[in-house]
Write a structure and sequence with these properties.
Blueprint: H1 4-13, E1 18-23, E2 29-34, H2 38-41, H3 55-73, E3 78-83, E4 120-125, H4 142-149, E5 154-160, H5 162-178, E6 187-196, H6 202-205, H7 216-230, E7 233-240
Helix pairs in contact: 5-7
The protein binds zinc ion (ZN).
């Protein structure tokens, strides 16, 4: 565990401007789920899964399930990336993980029900950046088409890992927006409470060959700060307007 002094100082030196997002049933926001799969979230489910229960990951799953319920109840669009690799194609520097068709590459139990919802688009991706992972051989982009088809003005991004797949996707989406290929998209919003990353403290990493430290709270905060710096909005709370 990184000392609270370091985290407090980091938050002072790299402050996040976090707002509250209020969603209504008729808004033009889409929900993007990044890799809420067993291989990254379920205890013991593979090389990249938590080895013991992890509070940040549990809260991410819980909050994502709450958002997903609202979006499905109101038939609002959801786009879910699932990390999914061919066993013969490694993804360095990471160990083998999330082979296509296995339990690791499936949505976590709390979100499995999304597979049969008509407002949900599922995209298997075999790379870190979901925007690149949405490219088809003919040059079209499944994510960009989803934004255009649903006339989305904002996307709300949640998932894991804040500093890897979430940050890379957010950065690419912002570049694509700035380049005018995601029209009418205006905002890429990251919900801090529904993002998480993995924990590999320095004292553990030092005992492992070729491992580098990855303290969870620090990396989560730095990633949110970097997303904000690239132009994403970061929100710490998402509420819903009362249904009529
Ligand atoms: Zn992967």
């Amino acid at each position: 565990m990184v000392s609270s002094t370091i985290i407090d100082q980091l938050k002072m030196e790299l402050p996040l401007k976090q707002e509250t997002l209020v969603l209504s049933a008729d808004n033009s926001t889409g929900l993007v789920l990044v890799d809420l799969v067993n291989g990254f979230c379920t205890v013991g489910a593979g090389n990249m899964a938590p080895k013991v229960p992890n509070k940040q990951i549990e809260e991410m799953v819980e909050e994502t399930a709450r958002l997903a319920r609202f979006f499905c109840d109101n038939k609002l669009p959801i786009f879910a990336f699932l990390d999914s690799h061919h066993p013969d194609v490694p993804e360095p520097p990471y160990p083998p993980h999330c082979f296509a068709g296995t339990h690791e590459s499936k949505l976590v139990p709390e979100l499995e029900w999304l597979e049969s919802e008509s407002n949900v688009t599922i995209r298997l991706k075999d790379c870190i950046d979901g925007f690149l992972g949405s490219m088809e051989e003919n040059g079209s982009n499944v994510f960009a088409n989803w934004v255009k088809t649903n006339r989305l003005e904002s996307v709300l991004v949640v998932g894991i890992c804040t500093d890897i797949c979430v940050l890379d996707f957010v950065s690419s989406a912002l570049s694509a927006r700035n380049r005018g290929i995601l029209t009418p998209l205006k905002d890429v919003i990251v919900y801090s409470g529904a993002c998480a990353t993995y924990d590999l403290p320095l004292h553990v990493a030092e005992t492992m060959k070729d491992a580098i430290a990855h303290p969870q709270d620090l990396m989560h905060h730095i990633a949110l700060y970097m997303a904000q710096g690239r132009g994403a909005k970061v929100v710490s709370e998402v509420t819903f307007t009362t249904q009529l």
